[in-house]
């Protein structure tokens, strides 16, 4: 497992068979993100995506106070976005900023690109990048008293790491989503659950982590051919017409249904035994 | 009405003027689907779509125990998906499987392709294909204690008859939908109602059928030009940009507004009488 | 402000700094729309969009009884849709109708085209065009006893001014939306809130207007670069793939992040002062 | 082969191994199309698509004078388009016409839907539907003195069976295509070849048929897994982004590359022998 | 016709029945564009689009020396693009520039938006905006010795008024188009004809204008229902899938085929007479 | 420049200011591709894309005999595609193949992803991957006697590295392209030029390289802000509607027009001097 050691600010453990637990691990700074930490988050998920021993991933923030407070503005002050290099040509700065955003987006999109389900667990302060990360995850759980904010408007910018792109597509009231995005107001975990942003709400972080690991174990025990195909097909279809979604699905399953997992799963169903599936 | 006789496993009756009631009719097998039964479902809806005496359709499962338990695995064991014909070339099997999926998708998509509104009524066991069928319908009602499951992951495959394609587009929490699809867990009719998967929840099948027929009668009494146009325009727009949706709508209504139904409907509104609309 | 005087049927006031209040102002006719009134609504919003003194807009109906009862059928009887000019060729009438729909759509789409957030406030009768207008707005509030109806089916036509195009995209249960559209049934403000059509529900119009102005003031105090970018990026992404949404966002912010608003907003955040942003 | 007997107006022969030759066979009427003949053309290609003995199809017109002169207006005079049933409501007529166009489009799209390459051979008069059919084919050959016309404008309508849909996508000068479509002017086979509408031009029908059969034999001797995959991937990509095209291609070949045809083809290439591929 | 008087820099005449001739009319400046002239070009075409007496439009440049030399840089020096207002915030300047580009694009897109065919005639110097305008037209003719250049790279910018958007869609070699756009090199009218950028090439401007008026007269004599439908359907399909193109076409013609123009055109065809079509 | 040393099989030189020359450098094997060589090609172009000293890239094959003969089948025999690991589950093999294709596609797409123009120079044998690479380049030149083949069908598969995805979008006759792809027939450089696949044809490799370097120098002397923007906007628009292309263009240039390159370029144009542009 040394492949996951030494990823700074990101701790990865394996609490159950085929289940990984990723923690944003900078609790003394409320898990605020530096550029390096974004890159490492992407790196971690790109590796987990390829690691055939991993079938479901739980993502949480270390410490009691925050999932993440978002961008570490102090640490980012030397980067292309916030530095005011007076000599710089506007077009060249624009290109640098665009590349910088592309990189951060690429890191966060690693959660969506990851072929295994990702369950994001939000507690405490969950500002800015916390929402970008949550909406790039498959499943969102939260603690009732967690405090969310699409904070970007409060620092003079439109969120650009995925929040505005994915919010219209996660099945929450668009009226609610727009008010939250325009006002940068804080909303609680309880509210997040009520509007469907999160699908389960818990009383404490401990209870949430425990429940998430249970869900992850259930998912990890299923055929990985089936689960990873399900993720790929849902996300493909979300962005395209029903017609294109159906066609892609048929092409995908033309190979996937030839897996021996189907036979194993069906036999186990009939015999009431627990199947074991090969790595994928 | 002999056009609807002898469609094996599918019973069609006409409980009210311009209203058809389709029943999955293999109750002794929990209305499980054979390949032939899928084809017949498609056949029935393609005929109903063309039948100008029909303006709204209610779809339910016969018997007390199930809407449908999904694919009849035993009956399907000789088909291209589950047979392991050892001589077979992988590419040729892939092509056969793809064609088989295309056919089943085509049968289920008959509900969406049908030009009249379809109200799906789920009760009891509603597994696998039950969800594919429900999401291809326009309106979903269910009984509080019905038991739903996106069951496919449990038999080693990603659902490929429409569930994964349409789930991201029916206005339910994507976090909730993904957890249901990855875990194949059972969720109740009560939960289906709470998250918006179903729009109404009832205490019993009897109560549900009665209410659905009331709704169907209301819809069937409206101008068929108006109702069928509404379905066509909603589904077209769902898959495209607002701009394309508006353009298509304008082209559609350029002809449809010339119908005499507009005059009739307005006159009836003023006179508080019940209009009669010609066949469509 | 004479730019907004003499827009017949539309009253525009400025109740707070950078906040405009638009009122449908034909209360003696339940704010029913004539063709001229549609054009004026579009005109008003196109002007507000360009007016750098305006940063958030509240839209409501004058009087106690209605947001709007929809199209004024009497006043429209001489137009291309409802007149039955017997000499007319069907294709030529179709073209005239299409142009007429295009124009009305263009007027209503002014709310979406407007670069500033629009909060629609529905009370009393909110029929037909009321829903077209509400779904073209960013945020929807309503009064609990307001009475909504997608009324078009009742006058023999499919809604063509945006309701059917935008309903599948605002994060409400598609099953609920289709039943409402097919049946033209009345639903209350309370129900609108429960399903997410409206994001807040109030006891009275007065209370709602007050709350909306509070929200508008909050939004108007934020950086206009940030808020208007947020609207543009949310709506662009809604209609496209996540991949396209992210790319467009990066190109957009490549320029926008060079604004001095970022520095001002961050400094104010640190100093706990209230920032002042330049016009946009 | 009795599957292809008795398809009225369509003659099907098998001049070489795995090659079918379809002829429009109503030479005494310049191969003009009745509604029945359109249906039969679609029927023939849908059957050929499923017939594993067929790997490439040549399509030509019987007789010396015409590929086809297009729609047989006399025979169509009782159909929904040209009849003027005075009682009829405009919306109901519109629906009937739309369904009629859908059916004719569906018949002609059978050439694109057909999983095997189709080579259309145009000679003599090639008007109206001739162009719809040609652009729905994969490969177009013609005789130098054949006379083409996008004739529809001359009978008061915009071509609706595929010409206007596919012309912008076949790699000819859009300026040339629009002039041809607006003016309904006649252009020769020589011109068709020069602008890339047809890829080969011949002196006589006999020479053209002979050359097309040679091409068809070459294609039919290749792996059908490879050839049919090539058609599917080209047409999918034509309508979508490069990114989507690449993704679909990868999913497709994930199964197809597991075919034994790859091994056979490579071995034959090394040994300079002629491979034999199993049916598909 | 006073509707077209006093459009500065744009001269409009009516050389034949139902044919308009638009001339860029600033020959002393090589027909270079000021911001006002762009707006007037858009205004002219928006009016021509609605003018039922006009059925085909020819567009050329006044004088012997140029179709247009492109943007009048001198006259534009005070505008938002080229002024360097040092106080200005980058984001605010970006928004102003974006709005300015939107406006110019909107003016040029009037040619594509215009419901009637537009034939662009290029002679002499045809730089920058000349190409933007040509590719937004339906049909392109040119003089052999005209000199084209996608000039924008030479003034430090990527062409943003349509050239780069429409070049990949007009059926010319993409390799050729990219070299022309990257290098800003001059290419002759003869070359433009050879690669399909223009569909006809002439020896002199006089000869070209005469031929274009002949083409315009042919087109203007056809049914306007048919011709304008042809333009609408070609351009809609160009940007969408074949499937969507076919569907839109069927909906369009459901109304348009009910025109009396079909009967008139067919009768004239049989009787060899010249039909007269009503205004559209 | 050590960044480009030691990229096995890929030689990179800098024959002129801001111009890179990439050579496929395995001439003793006809520049056939191993998996490593594909990866290195992608690596090279991803680095060149970020190297601000490079503004235009020429790509050719080392030696006299071939641009490239395509995949080195011998060297690939141990990879996931061609190995027949009998224990392997079909779904797991499918996933491995899909990932392998994704990787190779990603390497070749580096040419399109590269922000600078790429000129591909084809000579001698140009089979299989040669065409994938050529169509992913911006500009294609070739030698008259070079021998092209879309060779994949001859080894039992549909081309999956980009040929079938990009061929429908490069402005060549679709009829010609399909015949070439189905038949795997050899076509000459002369034919490639005639149909627009290549935009220039030369007598010898030497002459071609010389001309390409001239073109590259011309492009490299232009503003890199302008040239790279041109590439980005052309490729974005190719895959989307005209409307989306125009909008993206406006957002892009909102920042890019603020570059000082515009002022420099215009000043140089007026003064007839040669401008010097800063790195990008």
TrEMBL record, chains A, B, C, D, E, F:
Q: Where in the cell is it found?
A: Peroxisome
Q: Which GO terms describe its molecular function?
A: delta(3,5)-delta(2,4)-dienoyl-CoA isomerase activity
Q: Which InterPro entries match?
A: ClpP/crotonase-like_dom_sf (IPR029045), Ech1-like (IPR045002), Enoyl-CoA_hydra/iso (IPR001753), Enoyl-CoA_hydra_C (IPR014748)
Q: What is its main location?
A: other
Keyword terms of this UniProt record: Acetylation, Fatty acid metabolism, Isomerase, Lipid metabolism, Peroxisome, Virulence
**Pathway in which this enzyme or protein is active:** Lipid metabolism; fatty acid beta-oxidation
Which GO CC terms are listed, alphabetically?
mitochondrion; peroxisome
GO biological-process terms attached to the record: fatty acid beta-oxidation
Q: Does the keyword Acetylation apply?
A: yes
> Which Pfam families did the record assign?
ECH_1 (PF00378)
Q: Which family does it belong to?
A: Belongs to the enoyl-CoA hydratase/isomerase family.
Question: What protein does this entry describe?
Answer: ClpP/crotonase
